[in-house]
Amino acid sequence: MSNFLIYGSYGYTGQLVVELAVKEGMRPILAGRSETKLRAQAERYNLPYRTFRLDETGKLDSALLEVDAVLHCAGPFVLTFRQMAEACIRTKRHYVDISGEIEGFEALAKMSGEAKKAGIMLLPGGGFDVVPSDCLAAYLKGRLPTATHFRLFIQGVGGGVSRGTAVSGIENMHRQGRIRRDGRIVQVPAAWQVLEQDFGRGPKKVVSIGWGDVSTSYHSTGVPNVETYFAVKPPAIWVLRLTRLIGPLLYTRAARNLLQWIIRWANPHGPSPEKNRNGFNLMVGEMRDGDKVIRAKLRTPEGYRLTALTTVEIMKRILNGDYKPGFQTPSLAYGAEFIMQFEGVEREDLK
Q: How many CB atoms lie within 10 A of CB 181?
């Protein structure tokens, strides 16, 4: 029964995963809510498919019983992860998702005991967020075991944003920024900190955001203080600061629904194939213990492309029996060097 199911297979990222999985000789079962989209995709790749909503418990469980593992690609994950994860525990099937949402990571960590009893692995963040950054954090912690502070800086170059990512961002916008302080996740205002970071071509403005590593790097490394930053242009920083004033108007359920509708109507499906091939991401990680600081830089392929690469590899490993029961981060499951096997990934220690 060495097989897996991709829920949300016809979304932008799901489609990239299906293409790569088929190219690698795998035959996943496609799944989601739209019969029309699934049928077209299944016919294109000659793959089986199952149509169901996540609240259709009987159909969900029945589909999971056909496979060993599920790759959950249907966001916003804050609205969907629990139904799928609980079904995986009920049916004793492994769970992997491509989320970058802190709430899901923390909730799944609390489900670790149930997952261990079921003998399954819960591994959220199996894509761009958070495989490369989590592996970078684990690598740096290995070099400075006494570290008490971790800062992560990210710059995207030549890529883009899919419709699903934008919708998820709107769903979570009311949570503003998050950092981890003394082991606890703390909410901070939008654009709480604006710093400068040199990714190799001179300093860039970076702004604090609630990236997934605020959750996962703590579970991976035990470092109790975590901040994450993303490189943006100055006008974007101004907009983020403006949301401190108008945020309460935007954060209502009605406003978020309207913004999501606009995104679904107006936003292109996602980065073009050319951007997938040529885009890349740069990450600088910094571990600190008092005055002692170590830093390293990681270059990866464009985020959506990397997500296809990492998730397909994770599914291969699970289906070959390479997994750890309970809640896992990518580096806890497969080590700090996991990211280094993929073409286009380079790591450099910095002074």
A: 14
